């Protein structure tokens, strides 16, 4: 079986686990994320606008915005890295590519910390995304310039110890779930 086929199967299983976790959602995950982000106050941060059954980082992003710049990803096109537009609570939003909302005014910045959405993760920092490679390309480019922290944010049910990964998959530095903060390594 090819790596692409393995990833497709892993994604389908992870989406099912994520959907179930989303439906049973227990409060507290954004609080754990806020706790972690408090140690990085003032650093440029990228979050994301949750879609479908993604875990919601907005409460932590709102809190972080009181201490420093916060942005959300903007897809520029297939095969390109992401750009990040400044976001503030209650800023006007428009529909962006793939259904994610983006700020109406695109004031770009370069984040030092990224809250990364995902489909599945491993305790060693492996991440399975949606398959477009946007975060992998982006993290690789940012990390080539300077230290950049990638924080996976997910439900604990999205953990999968046997993810099919490849060398171009950028690792997560930390993972935050509703039940714990995981430091890979």
Automatic annotation (TrEMBL):
Catalysed reactions, semicolon-separated: (6S)-5-formyl-5,6,7,8-tetrahydrofolate + ATP = (6R)-5,10-methenyltetrahydrofolate + ADP + phosphate
EC number: 6.3.3.2
Cofactor or coenzyme needed: Mg(2+)
Gene Ontology MF term list: 5-formyltetrahydrofolate cyclo-ligase activity
Keyword annotations from UniProtKB, A to Z: ATP-binding, Ligase, Magnesium, Metal-binding, Nucleotide-binding
Top EC group: ligase
Matches recorded under Pfam families: 5-FTHF_cyc-lig
Recorded family membership: Belongs to the 5-formyltetrahydrofolate cyclo-ligase family.
UniProt name for this protein: 5-formyltetrahydrofolate cyclo-ligase
Organism: Tropicibacter oceani
């Amino acid at each position: 079986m090819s790596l692409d086929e393995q990833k497709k199967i892993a994604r389908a299983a992870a989406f099912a686990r994520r959907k179930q976790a989303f439906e049973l959602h227990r409060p507290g995950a954004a609080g754990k994320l806020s706790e972690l982000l408090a140690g990085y106050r003032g650093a440029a941060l990228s979050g994301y606008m949750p879609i479908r059954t993604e875990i919601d980082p907005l409460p932590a992003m709102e809190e972080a915005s009181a201490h420093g710049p916060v942005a959300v990803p903007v897809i520029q096109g297939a095969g390109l890295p992401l750009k990040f537009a400044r976001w503030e609570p209650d800023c006007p939003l428009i529909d962006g590519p793939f259904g994610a909302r983006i700020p109406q005014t695109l004031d770009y910045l370069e984040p030092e910390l990224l809250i990364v959405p995902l489909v599945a993760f491993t305790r060693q920092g492996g991440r399975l995304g949606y398959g477009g490679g946007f975060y992998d390309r982006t993290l690789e480019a940012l990390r080539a310039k300077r230290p950049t922290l990638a924080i996976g944010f997910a439900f604990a049910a999205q953990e999968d110890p046997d993810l099919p990964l490849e060398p171009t998959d950028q690792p997560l530095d930390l993972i935050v779930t509703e039940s714990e903060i995981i430091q890979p390594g």
